[in-house]
Design goal:
globular; Rid family detoxifying hydrolase; 28% strand; 421 residues; single chain; 7 helices; YjgF/YER057c/UK114; 6-stranded mixed sheet; binds amino-acrylate; RidA
């Protein structure tokens, strides 16, 4: 599809530019993907001195500088993901976070991870609404819709769902009972079921079917819980008779967190197709909504997710582990070989649906050892020689079967799926 897609990849000197091979913001269609921001002062290119609040303020100042450099404001934010080195820092970060979102709260996902680049204590990435669009969309005034329901857990610092254009974003749902505001009793099975029930409740509150989910990210504090979570997951997906008939499963990524808010063992966030859109799309468009889930035998298949799920002008790719196609097992090799294997799978999936790597707008990378970052980058840049997507890198405590790296991606989808407006 290269050549028909016009992405807008932009950098400003008012935010850090040279911390890795990424573009600060990559806009396509009605969304703009903001690369993870570290607490680095753009004037020195170095981590700032200071406590966790100073670090949080610098991350948000960098995001604000990027957003303002492209004519937007923080009120246009749809989603923020907040990565902490220590979950105990959350209250301190929240106090700063609130200052940057006085009026309109994006959805939010919070997790503590094993390590962040440069030894930072905090990092944040973001998704921005992009009403002006990129070619082939014409600029038009669009409304962002942030909605909350009393029937799902309330979070004073996150909207439950923020819809814009043809997508809706659901903030991370903890296994919280909305009636008590506390975690549900029980173990991982009960917690996983409550996360999914909360997502379902949020969707019902805005009259959106569960199978309109295109991507789910699971955050687990212990990967040994994954089989139990999957057991519950498959009782929720597919949901409707139509989705069961085609065995529809959203794209999916699993992230190993060191800790989650409230001491939860699991949380989940989701990206939703939004057939009715926000104005000027028509509610009637919902009836023509097409979600295109695709798999190729040339890349690892899973009974738990589709390799790629396209809707409207975006396509979501499931996280790719460095699975060796010859053995079906994690490639026995160093991080460079494993990175090439993950990106090789992504390239195969991308090409199987008629796209090229340059159509990718955002990449998320999990490293088992953050010290592998430079080696991973050495391979990464070979896959993006001409243009660099926005990007987020985290160090995780664990990856399945001892893998060293896992990578997922979001891709522009200029051909679109109906409704085409
Ligand atoms: C710092 C960052 N966003 C990256 O991808 O290396």
């Amino acid at each position: 599809m290269s050549g028909t897609i016009i992405k807008s990849a932009r950098n400003t000197p008012n935010a850090p530019q040279d911390l890795g091979p990424y573009t600060q913001s990559v806009a396509f269609s009605h969304y703009n993907n903001i690369a993870a921001q570290l607490p680095v002062d753009p004037r020195t290119g170095k981590m700032i001195e200071g406590d966790i609040q100073a670090q949080a303020r610098q991350c948000l100042t960098n995001i604000q500088a990027i957003v303002q450099s492209i004519g937007h404001g923080m009120e246009d934010m749809v989603k923020v993901t907040l990565f902490l080195a220590d979950i105990a820092d959350l209250d301190a970060v929240n106090a700063v976070y609130r200052e940057f979102f006085p009026h309109s709260l994006p959805t939010r996902t919070v997790l503590a991870v094993a390590a962040l680049p440069l030894g930072a204590r905090v990092q944040m990435d973001a998704l921005l609404s992009n009403g002006e669009g990129t070619f082939p969309q014409a600029p038009c005034p669009l409304l962002k819709l942030a909605r909350n329901s009393d029937r799902a857990p309330q979070d004073p610092l996150s909207s439950q769902s923020v819809a814009f254009s043809h997508y809706n974003n659901i903030g991370a749902q903890l296994p919280m009972d909305p009636a008590t505001g506390a975690l549900v009793d029980g173990g991982i099975l009960e917690q996983a079921a409550q996360c999914l029930r909360n997502i379902k409740t949020v969707l019902e509150s805005i009259d959106v079917p569960f199978d309109d989910i295109v991507k789910v990210t699971l955050y687990l504090t212990n990967l040994a819980d994954l089989d139990a979570v999957n057991e519950v997951y498959t009782t929720f997906f597919p949901d409707s008779a139509i989705a069961r008939a085609v065995a529809y499963l959203p794209a999916r990524s699993v992230v190993s967190a060191v800790a989650l808010p409230l001491g939860a063992r699991v949380q989940m966030d989701a990206v939703i197709s939004h057939g009715d859109g926000t104005p000027p799309q028509l509610v009637e468009d919902r009836h023509n909504l097409v979600i295109r889930a695709r798999n190729t035998d040339q890349a690892p298949r899973s009974p738990l997710h589709s390799q790629s799920v396209a809707f409207s002008h975006y396509n979501h790719l499931s996280a790719q582990l460095p699975i060796d196609p010859a053995t079906g097992k994690i490639l026995a090799g160093c991080v460079k070989e494993q990175t090439a294997q993950c990106l090789g799978h992504i390239k195969t999936i991308v090409e199987s649906i008629g796209h090229v790597m340059d159509d990718i707008v955002k990449v998320n990378i999990q490293l088992a050892n953050i010290a592998d970052l430079a080696d991973m980058d050495a391979i990464y840049t070979q896959y993006f020689p001409a243009y660099l997507p926005a990007r987020t890198v985290i160090g995780v405590s664990e990856l399945p079967a001892g893998a060293l790296v896992q990578i997922d991606a979001v891709m522009s989808n200029a051909e679109s799926t109906p409704p085409q407006v």
